[in-house]
Specification:
globular; ten-stranded mixed beta sheet
């Protein structure tokens, strides 16, 4: 357990003040510590939006990270890159990233627990193999994993600032007329189906997807989608909204799928970022998955 004391030297929100003062932390982490009663102002609990007054005393206690109660499993990983700070995994289709109720085994996290051993980040007070971002179970492709808190925070900041390069490939229904385009539409939780996302102005976040046609066919189009933002199900929701849902998407796709597909044809092909420690730009790219090549060959 780590304890620190600060004296306010400006009139500002406490979460902003501490995220600026404490190296290797985020504003959301500070807010969580405040909500858990680990941050006091003049000996009293406050809310995350509390505005400090000059000369107030802030005491900060960072609890030790709690072990994640998940079993490590010896599951083979396709590691594209790895160093002492982070690794990049090419996640297969049909693998869940993070365990949840009813699905506690066989996930990417179970595999990472075995692969990384003690090299896990402890963001938000819980030891976990630094899942910086996620991709859907039925989506394959490149995923960034942080091994330490500094790397986790550095990569998370790049995602927040939209500076990460993330390009996906997809096969979508219909023939897209434009060679390229942009979908700029806010995404939020569906009002009646909580497992779905939708385009809405209510309780939503801005979302931008850029798409580029790679090849056209009679009934479908092979496209590349670049994420400017990274919202849940973003590409699937955005492409469906312009009348070109991803093939095999049972949630946002067509009701009667002509093709006998097991999961959507969506793959995270390219990821680029500034290494949080070396500060060098790094970019990685995977081959087109076999399921894409097989479909294109059979349906030309």
């Amino acid at each position: 357990m780590e304890a620190k004391t600060f004296i306010a030297d400006e009139n500002t929100r406490i979460d902003k003040f501490l995220s600026d003062k404490v190296e290797g932390t985020t504003r959301s982490h500070i807010q969580k510590l405040i909500e858990d009663g680990n941050i006091l102002v003049d000996g009293k609990t406050v809310k995350p939006n509390y505005k400090l007054k000059i000369n107030q005393e802030i005491s900060l206690t960072v609890p030790e990270a709690k072990p994640l109660e998940i079993t490590a499993e010896d599951i083979k990983l396709d590691v594209v890159y790895e160093d002492e700070h982070l690794l990049i995994v090419n996640k297969p289709q049909n693998m869940v990233v993070h365990p949840a109720a009813g699905n506690m085994e066989g996930t990417l996290v179970n595999a990472l627990m075995h692969h990384c051993g003690d090299s896990l980040s402890g963001i938000n007070g819980v030891i976990r193999p630094g899942i910086v971002h996620r991709i859907d179970k039925d989506t394959s492709g490149l995923l960034l994993v942080a091994k330490d808190d500094i790397s986790h925070i550095g990569l998370a900041e790049q995602i927040k600032e939209h500076s990460l390069t993330r390009k996906y490939i997809a096969i979508v229904h219909g023939n897209i007329k434009e060679d390229s385009g942009k979908v700029d539409a806010p995404i939020g939780r569906h009002p009646t189906n909580r497992k779905k996302m939708c385009i809405t102005d209510k309780n939503s976040k801005n979302a931008v997807t850029h798409f580029r046609v790679l090849e056209r066919f009679m009934e479908y189009t092979f496209v590349e989608c670049r994420l400017e933002t990274g919202r849940t199900h973003q590409i699937r929701v955005h492409m469906a909204s312009i009348g070109h849902p991803v093939l095999g998407d049972k949630t946002y796709g067509v009701k009667k799928e002509k093709y006998n597909l097991k999961g959507q044809l969506l793959h995270a092909k390219v990821i680029g970022f500034i290494h949080p420690v070396t500060k060098e730009y790094m970019e990685f790219e995977t081959e087109v998955p076999e399921r894409f090549l097989k479909f294109l060959k059979q349906n030309k």
